[in-house]
Design a protein that fits this description.
With 78 residues, the protein is mostly helical. Helix content is 56%, strand content 8%. It is flat and about 40 Å long. The relative contact order is 0.15.
Length: 78
């Protein structure tokens, strides 16, 4: 039960932070912290994050990046 509360409170915190980021964008005050990101690793981690929920709902989730490159972006804002 505590894990569920912790998981859901973290998700709620993420949503609140996203709303605050939108307000910053609207005010022109959002600072981006760009790093070099490997898309293959990014999508692998993203799929791993959603896989338990997808499995619970009988949804198959996968990723495929067909090129080997790095991108410059703020991964936290993707």
């Amino acid at each position: 039960m505590l894990r569920l509360i912790d998981k859901n409170s973290n998700k709620m915190l993420e949503l609140v932070n996203q709303v605050l980021d939108f307000a910053k964008i609207k005010a022109g005050k959002l600072n981006l912290h760009q790093d070099i990101v490997n898309p293959e690793v990014f999508f692998k981690d993203l799929c791993a994050l959603f896989k338990p929920l997808a499995t619970e709902k009988n949804i198959v989730i996968s990723h495929k990046v067909s090129y080997n490159t790095l991108i410059k972006t703020d991964a936290d804002k993707l």
